[in-house]
Design brief:
Helix content: 40-55%
Number of helices: 13
Distance between the termini: 69 Å
Oligomer: single chain
Shape: elongated
Number of strands: 12
Structural class: alpha+beta
């Protein structure tokens, strides 16, 4: 998948707009001062400017909550992808392209590979795991409607494919050398059986590209593509000579020994080509590079947005505290505690956070729901994500308010009331 430019643009825009808005107001506000009044000490703060400050703080925290929300959704989706059962075991799976002489020496390669220390099993296929296969509609079966067209993913495979991939065999068997009829035998997945409306598929006729045979096995659904694509109906047919890759499964903790043995066999059978291989795990990770980039960007921008929002909130707090400095001094003389001053400062800002949360939540949900549409399988957006985003923003605000409240509360009231 290519990097989603729209989502990247949104993330970049958030931080740029936040910074722009944060600097725009002070610029216009300072330029509006009357120099004569300021020099005469007659400058007084207008109510409208205070309201504008509050609006800016709400806007900043809207961006912050949205980015926190996006970060959590992306993180959960990536975790969901990595933990989802793909229907086969992608660990300890080595993939080698059948280049040069390996195509005609395929049987020798497989036999020698199976005898290597550290190798559990080996097979061949027309495509690597998770990179799909070719699509076809050239399939006939009993009960098929005249105009019915189903797009199947088909792969030519070798013996021991089910064992090597560790697919779950629900019924029937894998292809076997003991059955000559397997040359026109087929293995299908659950999705194929369902789409063909076959309740007991094993043993039933199936004609593929004009070659009539029998279904010998049915396997549990497994992913032949990334999770961006839904499970497809799959048909496996036995044609080792058509294969493009060899797939070998190593024993746990024996990968190095297996690779050393494979390297020797490869150099003997195909000396004109360098020994190259890849792991199914690496193929899996490479399919989500853009999501990893998005995850990192969301983390960076969330951190920056939080920092900028804290600066905006701190500026409003300082201004409010300075405007009410004498009030706080009188309250302290009358016995007010740090807690009561904290409550006086925080109640208005908690309301601002609630307003920001009410605005940001539906926006964040809409943006991330659209981002998730690119995946056929999605981690749910539940109430916990809303709760974590809102509580995180509230805690950030409360920490900022607390710092300023303590600073005001410990100030000597004599200093604040001296001019009276």
């Amino acid at each position: 998948m290519d990097t989603d430019p729209a989502f990247i643009a949104i993330l970049l825009s958030v931080i740029l707009i936040t910074g722009f808005v944060s600097g725009l107001y002070p610029a216009f506000f300072l330029s509006s001062f009357s120099i004569v009044k300021v020099l005469k000490g007659k400058f007084t703060q207008q109510t409208g400017s205070v309201s504008l400050r509050k609006v800016l703080v709400v806007v900043q925290f809207c961006f912050t909550i949205t980015l926190i929300f996006a970060t959590i959704v992306v993180y959960r989706q990536m975790g969901y992808i990595r933990e989802k059962n793909l229907g086969f075991d992608r660990e300890n799976l080595i993939i080698i392209d059948l280049e040069g002489d390996l195509g005609r020496k395929q049987e020798t390669l497989i036999n020698e590979t199976k005898n290597l220390p550290g190798i559990h099993s080996a097979t061949v296929s027309t495509s690597s795991p998770l990179v799909g296969g070719n699509s076809t509609v050239g399939v006939e079966w009993p009960g098929k409607l005249p105009n019915e067209k189903i797009l199947f993913t088909q792969m030519a495979v070798g013996y021991d494919y089910v064992e090597t991939m560790k697919l779950t065999l629900l019924s029937g068997r894998d292809f076997s050398r003991e059955f000559a009829s397997d040359s026109v035998g087929y293995i299908i997945n659950e999705e194929s059986a369902q789409r063909m409306n076959l309740k007991d598929p094993v043993g039933q006729d199936l004609t593929f590209w004009g070659r009539k045979g029998k279904i010998v096995g049915i396997v549990k659904n497994y992913h032949v593509n990334s999770l961006h694509t839904a499970i497809e109906p799959v048909i496996l047919h036995l044609h080792p000579g058509w294969s493009n890759v060899m797939i070998a499964r190593t024993e746990p903790d024996a990968t190095d020994d297996a690779l050393n043995g494979l390297r020797k066999i490869y150099s003997q059978l195909n000396p004109a080509y360098p020994f190259e291989y890849k792991f199914a795990d690496d193929v899996f990770e490479s399919q989500y590079k853009s999501e990893v980039v998005v995850s990192k960007l969301a983390n960076y921008f969330s951190t920056m947005a939080i920092f900028i929002s804290c600066l905006g909130l701190l500026g409003l707090l300082v201004h409010t505290a300075e405007q009410r400095l004498k009030e706080f001094g009188i309250r302290k003389v009358l016995g007010a505690s740090v807690r009561s001053i904290f409550l006086l400062l925080s109640k208005d800002f908690v309301l601002l956070m609630l307003i920001a949360f009410a605005i940001a939540s539906p926006v964040a949900w809409y943006l991330m729901k659209n981002w998730l549409l690119d995946f056929a399988y999605q981690a749910p957006i539940d109430w916990k994500i809303f709760a974590i985003s809102g509580v995180s923003a509230l805690l950030i605000a409360l920490v900022t308010v607390t710092m300023q409240a303590i600073k005001v509360a410990v100030r000597n009231p004599v200093d604040t009331l001296r001019s009276e």
